[in-house]
Amino acid sequence: MITGPTFEEMLHPQKIAPEIRAKALAARTANPLDPVNLFNITWRDPNNEVYHVVLPKELTGVDANIVVIYGKEFPSGSHKVGAAYSVLLELELFGEVDPNVHTLVWPSTGNYGIGGAWVGGRMGCKSLVVLPAGMSRERFERIESYGASINKTVGSESNVKEIYDETHRLRNSDPNIRILNQFEVMGNYRFHYHVTGNTIVELAAELQAKGVGTGKISAYVSAMGSSGTIAAGDRLKQVWPDHKIVGLEPIQCPTLYNNGYGVHDIQGIGDKHVTWIHNVLNMDAIMCIDDIECKKGLQVFAEEAGRQTLINRYKMDAALVEKLGPLFGISGICNILGAIKTARYYNMGKDDVIVTVATDALDRYHSVMDSMAECYGHLDEAETVGRVESIFKGMRTDWIMPGTPEARERWHNLKYYTWVEQQGKSVEELDAQRDPAWWAEHQQRVQAIDARLAALREADTRRS
After folding, report:
1. pLDDT digit string (tens) for 238-263?
2. pLDDT for 331-358, tens place per residue?
3. Residue 1: pLDDT band by 50, 70, 90 thresholds?
4. Are 362 and 326 in contact, with CB atoms under 8 Å apart?
5. Measured between alpha carbons, how far is residue 13 from residues 40, 77, 187, 194, 448 in Å?
6. What CA–CA distance (Å, rounded) separates 62 from 377?
7. Among 267, 186, 288, 190, residue whose Cα is nearest residue 234
8. CA nearest to 355, candidates 457, 458, 243
9. Architecture of domain 42-76+187-415 in CATH?
């Protein structure tokens, strides 16, 4: 039985039945494994305000307003749980998954697998997560704590081909296996287009009421893993046609930037291919960020000496700094650096708002921070100042490729090698994505999915 929210309820949780909303809010901390927590899949807090922070200019060094919406407060600690729920919801609604029969396989480099393990368990399904052996220890611990099994594949973040190979093996081994491939299935895209995108649209007006910006989002910046999160930009560009969608990759694995490849450690992004669900024909630029700068930047927030330097040397508000401390993971710092680079590249000023995302939080990277301290030492004031000045305030405008018509064509054509040659798509299916109507059709399915879930609820009510 499906017990979770519609897309509209994830966007506007105040529309959830009051008694269910109250139970869900009570269960957030009292019983986080209770299925009623599915109704806590939203970007909004118990007061229906968007989880966000406006970064101080003492950190960013730019006049533009950089706003981070953060996923730490979602069930499982990452917004990826929303994508996992949306994918499973659609499959159950249309009869492709039966919890009593099928085993769900969640191909992932971490957060989607964690979200899938959590969602699958709450919706009565048996789950198996496939992810690389080189991911952080905390990822494996979290997946197992939710009752899912794990198949470890060779490599680390950029070894997604090996994940695909394992999912093919599993599919061929058992007719009751169902692969919920975040890189391919459009439920992932729909969650971020509708829920994340419209949340940011509404946030623009809320920010303006607080004196931040003019009610418009000038740019949206997101690193790509599955490329679900960046789908929010498609919605933003419908509202503001001159809006800029900026994608980010690691310098160490610049696939869209120059057909590059390599190993990197911005966990959750840079998966060495162009995903099926990424609307690259709508992207205005690709920018590359150094993985070691992301980890060094995270260390500033992770260590007490770093936070104290932000307060004492840079005069940042102490309460804000303490709030920022646990909010970001490695990819969150990557997105912040990309937002600073975007502000500099487009010469954005005090009236501009750039929105980016912290997908997960520090709690998944304590082991990585321990390794950083072993390698580079713990921070003191001098080292913190050096990192703030060089990594954040000194962010460069190198490694940028504008989204010209020729560049977008190249990005789209790169899908051929993964999806047609390896994953069984047809050339006709690939060519169909060139038409904006293809994407619009998938966006419009949100209403049909919500209607189907509403009808199921009504039928359950009549039976009871």
Report:
1. 999 999 999 999 999 999 999 999 99
2. 999 999 999 999 999 999 999 999 999 9
3. low
4. yes
5. 8, 18, 19, 14, 19
6. 29
7. 190
8. 243
9. 3-Layer(aba) Sandwich (3.40)
Average pLDDT over every residue of 30-52: 97
Order of all β-strands in the sheet with 177-179: 149-153, 126-132, 103-107, 177-179
3-state secondary structure 252-320: CCCHHHHCCCCCCCCCCCCCCCCCCCCCHHHCCEEEEECHHHHHHHHHHHHCHHHHHHHHHCCCCCHHH
Whether the CB-CB separation of 127 and 133 falls below 8 Å is answered with no
Is residue 79 predicted with pLDDT exceeding 90? yes
CA dihedral sign of residues 22, 206, 301, 358: positive
pLDDT confidence band for 286 (50 / 70 / 90): very high
User: Residues with Cβ < 8 Å from 176, sequence gap 6 or more?
Assistant: 101, 102, 103
How far apart, in whole angstroms, are the C-alpha atoms of residue 91 and residue 213?
40
**How far is residue 355 CA from its own chain's centroid?**
13
pLDDT tens column, 148-202? 999 999 887 678 889 989 999 999 999 999 999 999 999 999 999 999 999 999 9
Q: Which residue has the tokens 């439920």?
A: 187
The domain segmentation of the chain, as residue ranges, is 42-76+187-415
Q: Are strands 400-402 and 285-289 parallel, antiparallel or unpaired?
A: antiparallel
